[in-house]
Amino acid sequence: METKLSPTARMLLKSWMQLKKMDLHPQSIAGYKPSEGRLLFCIKYGKKPDSPGPTVTDLSKLLHVTSPTVTQLINELAGKGLVQRNVDPKDRRVVRITLTETGEQIIQKLGDSLAASLKGLIEYLGEGESRQLAELLSKVAVYLQERNTNPNQSLLRGEDEGCSDCSDF
């Protein structure tokens, strides 16, 4: 039996597939991969108040990836001098991840690049349509999150759900 899609459903599917094919993130931003940028933002903005920095577990939860994936990224960023590991002063068994001064500078560059991209989109769409798009995308996210609570009903799940709390880019 063939599934019949309404014209609106076809239009949504076509738009969705076009977006999925597009490279929404450049291969690098200021010389850093999008995954590195997301991790840097999560380190800076994903920590709990009064915390000396997030743990690998905290970061893996924010990014929706495994701890070994985060550890590998941290190793790469540490090798570039952007992050450092610090022993928690209250519990020496816990390691906290913090940005170095260079890491803070990179966050500024990445933030400027993101702001410029969003500014260009807002100028292209206009203020009203940009707000409308943001509201619609928020509704889509809620819908997909609700659908994903039952994996058998999920529709077109994304492979990289990213860090929704950390300026995902």
Describe the model.
With 169 residues, the chain is mostly helical. It has one domain (30-153): Winged helix-like DNA-binding domain superfamily/Winged helix DNA-binding domain (Arc Repressor Mutant, subunit A, Orthogonal Bundle). Strand 1 and strand 2 form a beta hairpin. Helix content is 56%, strand content 6%. It is built from 6 helices and 2 strands; from the N terminus they run H-H-H-H-E-E-H-H. The protein has a two-stranded antiparallel ribbon with strand order 1-2. It starts with 6 loop residues before the first helix and ends in a 21-residue tail after the last helix.
**How many individual β-strands?**
2
CATH architect. name: Orthogonal Bundle
Helix content: 55-70%
Highest CATH level, the class: Mainly Alpha
InterPro entries: ArsR-like_HTH, HTH_MarR-typ, MarR/SlyA-like, WH-like_DNA-bd_sf, WH_DNA-bd_sf
GO molecular function, one term: DNA-binding transcription factor activity
Keywords: DNA-binding
Organism: Kroppenstedtia eburnea
Summarize the structure.
This protein is mainly α. The chain has helices spanning 7-21, 34-45, 56-63, 67-79, 101-125, 127-148, and strands at residues 83-87, 95-99.
Write the layout of secondary structure elements.
Layout: H1 7-21, H2 34-45, H3 56-63, H4 67-79, E1 83-87, E2 95-99, H5 101-125, H6 127-148
Antiparallel strand pairs: 1-2
Helix pairs in contact: 2-5, 3-4, 5-6
What are the main properties of this structure?
6 helices, 2 strands, single chain, 169 residues, Arc Repressor Mutant, subunit A, 56% helix, mainly alpha
